[in-house]
Amino acid sequence: MYREDFEGGYAQEHAGEDVYSKPVRAGKRTYFFDVKATKGNDYYLTITESKRRVERDGRYAYDKHKIFLYKEDFEKFAEGLQEVVDYIKKNCAYEVVEKKDDGENYSSDVEFEQL
């Protein structure tokens, strides 16, 4: 069997499946950065925000929002993201809420640059 045949078969077998995944937990939200493969073995990125909420009956449910980012858009997306992050760092203070060891919440005004 030729290498191209093996790789092509592998790509077909795993098309659409996660190639690599990086979860980032941030408070009540979790962000998933997932690399996936197309049938042609071309990679793309999905970014999913997942937030847990409690239903009326006490069960947990998850709100999920997903975007698909294709390689031809990586550079412009990264530039735009960096621009708005820089803007926030320069112009915006925000309140950080942290948990104490006893489980109580407390907040402090922190400039973005201090983080």
3D structure, described in words:
The chain has 115 residues and is α+β, with helices and mostly antiparallel strands. It has helices at residues 3-13, 74-91; strands spanning 18-26, 29-37, 43-54, 60-70, 93-99, 105-111. It has a four-stranded antiparallel beta sheet, with no helix packed on it. Strand 2 and strand 3 (43-54) form a beta hairpin. The protein starts with a helix and ends with a strand.
What would you say about this model in short?
The chain is built from two helices and six strands, in the order H-E-E-E-E-H-E-E.
Helix content: 25-40%
Q: Tell me, what is the CATH class?
A: Alpha Beta
CATH-level-2 architecture: Roll
Widest sheet: strand ordering: 1-2-3-4
By secondary-structure content and strand pairing, the structural class works out as alpha+beta
Number of strands: 6
The biggest beta sheet reads: 4 strands, antiparallel
Radius of gyration: 20 Å
Task: Tell me the series of helices and strands, N- to C-terminal.
Answer: HEEEEHEE
Output the CATH topology: Nuclear Transport Factor 2, Chain: A
Alpha-carbon distance between the two ends = 54 Å
Any idea how many domains? Answer: 1
Strand content: over 45%
